[in-house]
Amino acid sequence: MSCFLGIFNWVQIFFMILLGINILYFFFFALASLFPLRLRLRENGEYKRIIVLIPGYKEDSVIIDVAIDALKQEYPQDQYDVAVIADSFKESTITKLKELPIRLIEVSFENSTKAKALNRAMSVLPNDYDIAVVLDADNIMAPNFLSQVNSFFAAKLSCAVQGHRVAKNINTPFAVLDAISEEVNNRLFRKGHSVLKLSASIIGSGVAFDYPYFKNIMMQMKAVSGYDKELEIELLRNKHRVYYLPDALVYDEKIQNAEAFSKQRRRWLFSQFYYFRIAFFDALKRLFVSGNIDYFDKVFQWILLPRIIVIGMMGMLAPLFIILEWLIFHNAYMIPAWITLFCILIITFLVAIPGKFYNMQTLQAIRQIPKGLWLMFKNFFMLKGTNKTFIHTSHGTSEGDSKDTVVR
Known about the structure:
Shape: globular
Number of helices: 14
CATH architecture: Alpha-Beta Complex
CATH superfamily: Spore Coat Polysaccharide Biosynthesis Protein SpsA, Chain A
Distance between the termini: 59 Å
CATH class: Alpha Beta
CATH topology: Spore Coat Polysaccharide Biosynthesis Protein SpsA, Chain A
């Protein structure tokens, strides 16, 4: 029995350390997000030239409305342009886009990527822009988004700033879960980090850059999946901190079914593991040689377990270990630790999830968590070849379009 108890304790300690690192990291930045984020923006009457880049791959169902909406910013019309980068669009869509006062750039690649589309666009656009704003093809900017971005760059704080991406729709249980996940990310990896003067995480859309710097960096991009992570590596390696604008809203369509959830998360998982592997030792060296905390913190984030996996493992392992300790081994040493860790996890999500999601719709969506957990678990075994394939998540169609709910 003593032999089995020893093995049991070592297994228990392993999982407690694994889950504890993840939970305590989330908890620390959740608490930080409770404090106000103060940014000294500047409005000096100067309007910088902005190019809004909207790359899209087969996004015929949403791109017209997105392009029209992007032209309605509360920003001088002669100081910003909208560029739609159309990859594999229908001829009817192209015809409609040509009728709009936008810059239409048609592209076609054997293997399509967002990085290739952005680079092709910037190779034909003029060089007189000061700021580049990157959107996804389903994104809608709040009317004052460009004005907020302009005020940020007028203050000369950094060459990159992430806007506050929020849900455009919560019309299915998976869309609700995705919307909650987005806001938890905003609290932990953007606001919480920014409050502590650390770099905010880039999402890949609703983000703005100094145009010359962005164009130069993008020319070096080779990513098929996760161009934003390769971009973060370059920014943070050179100590360019990413800031966060919580009031600069961009509405993003959330995934609406299990298939889209699985495809999207598989792409995210691969890019995190891939860039962790290539950047970890460089980040570790720069942490000790030059004190580059932002770079190391970012790479560390990429090896954290997905939160749904953490929730699932805690939900299964904590009760299992507590029962085994109490009933079989008649041991109570680790029970308080498991209960404490479980409570910390609950507090973390109570803090990180905005109050608007405490409703019956969320309770109904929670029933999909076991399915989401299973899909995430399966994705760990389906990562091979992801770097060679462009995984596209379609927008504008759902199983619940007739009862679409928009979050504003």
